[in-house]
């Protein structure tokens, strides 16, 4: 039997739809970089938008959200179609796509943790679910497009999501304002990811915990 969860608040719904649109655009741009047709744009864009949340719901034993509320699904399809008709092939290689991805990552880290806490998951589990929600769609997208997932490249990507989700769980445990918790957690994730993009911060191999400026070119499809 699916677990009973608390209804989503208006601001969480708005944040979720914002993240869906941003990640769907990111996925569609990745499809453009691989010169896919319109079906490829819709497939990759939609999977990127809803993939992380789908994994989260399955792991939590929840009914997958978009199967009951198709607004999320149709939003991802619509954004993917708009991206196909509105952008040129060169857009997929512009560095600003990194920043849109960072916004989506930050939104979904908060959303995933919020939904898991609403499903009565333990705080540690909720933080992990925030990370899964934020990174799952991008990992699926990269696997389908034959691209090395960013989560395996050492950059502070999943780490940023964990920090954002951890901040949200801690602030919720403290009993403060919901809106303040969402804003601070979103900002924490985004700032860590932004610093990573600007300074190319990476987790190093054993014996080299962290390094700044590896000299690699940034990924263009993000």
Largest sheet, strands/sense/barrel? 2 strands, antiparallel
Encode the helix/strand succession as letters: HHHHHHHHEE
Number of domains: 1
Count of alpha and pi helical runs: 8
Strand content: under 5%
Average pLDDT, to the nearest integer? 87
Give a short summary of the structure.
Helices cover 68% and strands 3% of the residues.
Which tags fit this structure?
2 strands, 68% helix, 222 residues, disordered C terminus, two-stranded antiparallel ribbon
Give a verbal description of the structure.
By secondary structure, this protein is mostly helical. It has one domain (10-212). The protein is 68% helix and 3% strand. The chain contains eight helices and two strands, in the order ααααααααββ. It has helices at residues 10-33, 38-60, 65-68, 71-86, 96-118, 123-144, 158-173, 178-199, and strands at 201-203, 210-212. It has a two-stranded antiparallel ribbon with strand order 1-2. Helix 1 (10-33) packs parallel to helix 4, helix 1 (10-33) crosses helix 5 and helix 5 (96-118) crosses helix 6 (123-144). The N and C termini lie far apart (38 Å). The model is unreliable at 217-222 (pLDDT under 50).
SSE layout:
Elements: H1 10-33, H2 38-60, H3 65-68, H4 71-86, H5 96-118, H6 123-144, H7 158-173, H8 178-199, E1 201-203, E2 210-212
Antiparallel strand pairs: 1-2
Helix pairs in contact: 1-2, 1-4, 1-5, 2-4, 2-6, 5-6, 5-7, 5-8, 6-7, 7-8
